[in-house]
Structure formats: structure tokens, C-alpha cells
Amino acid sequence: MYYVYLIQCEDESIYTGITNDIERRFLEHKNKIGGYYTRSHKVEKVLYTEKYKTRGEALRREAQIKGWRREKKLKLITS
């Protein structure tokens, strides 16, 4: 299983990524050992996750979400 996830950063920005272990990956981001963006943007919490059977499906969805404006990401989170 692969997960697409959205994390809220301290500056209210939203980071989007994929993983096969949400808890491990969140801790990596929190400890500044995962992801270039989150090394300079302190992470606060996981806002949203989606589950996929293959890495390819997750990568396609991640790319789609990364292309969205903040408002559309927030609508996804609240839906």
C-alpha cells in the first residue's frame, strides 16, 4: 500500500508527498531528515491521506495534487 499525504507546516503551507508508512515518514519530516521542503518548513500535523495499491498510482495522484492551488487542496481536506 502507498499513501498520498498532505502535511500542514508551521507557516500554514501544505506539503504533499507519498510513502508506504505514514507514521515513519511524518517523523522523518518532523526530525528534518525527510524532504527538502520540510527541512526549512517545520511540520505540524498530517491533514489528509489517500491509499493506493501501486506506487505509480500514488505518484500520479501526488503530481496532480501538487499542481493545485491551496484553495483546492483545502477543499479536498474538508470533503
UniProtKB/TrEMBL annotation:
<protein>
    <recommendedName>
        <fullName>GIY-YIG domain-containing protein</fullName>
    </recommendedName>
</protein>
<comment type="similarity">
    <text>Belongs to the UPF0213 family.</text>
</comment>
<dbReference type="InterPro" id="IPR050190">
    <property type="entry name" value="UPF0213_domain"/>
</dbReference>
<dbReference type="InterPro" id="IPR035901">
    <property type="entry name" value="GIY-YIG_endonuc_sf"/>
</dbReference>
<feature type="domain" description="GIY-YIG">
    <location>
        <begin position="1"/>
        <end position="75"/>
    </location>
</feature>
<dbReference type="Pfam" id="PF01541">
    <property type="entry name" value="GIY-YIG"/>
</dbReference>
<dbReference type="InterPro" id="IPR000305">
    <property type="entry name" value="GIY-YIG_endonuc"/>
</dbReference>
